[in-house]
Specification:
PTS_EIIB_2; globular; 106 residues; Rossmann fold; four-stranded parallel beta sheet; sugar transport; 38% helix; PTS_EIIB-like_sf; 4 strands; alpha/beta
């Protein structure tokens, strides 16, 4: 059994906004005691990373019309600067589906 959850951030081009969100959320996940691998990419690269991702963080507008695996968990990103808030949303998914990825926070 793996001890991490894989989180994928997607934006239109895989550069600015998803890279900023990745950095901020990594800090938030560490504060939440969640062991995660976090990557960012462009929407066009979705298919190459779908088997890797447990959680996909994406804006609602970008997700419209995209197809995700049935067991992919989604986090709707409203404010990319709210790393702590996004991490809390991911934390709820972790608790429900990937409890092995949560570690004790000292």
């Amino acid at each position: 059994m793996k001890d991490k959850v894989n989180v994928l951030f997607m934006c239109g081009y895989g550069l600015g906004s998803s890279a900023v969100a990745e950095m901020l959320v990594k800090k938030g996940l560490a504060a939440e005691g969640i062991n995660a691998d976090v990557k960012h990419t462009a929407v066009g690269e979705l298919n190459s990373l779908m088997d890797w991702a447990d959680v996909v963080a994406i804006s609602k507008k970008l997700s419209e019309g995209l197809r995700f695996k049935e067991d992919t968990h989604m986090v709707e990103v409203v404010n990319i600067m709210d790393g702590a808030g996004i991490a809390k949303q991911i934390g709820k998914i972790v608790d429900a589906h990937y409890p092995y990825a949560r570690k004790e926070v000292l």
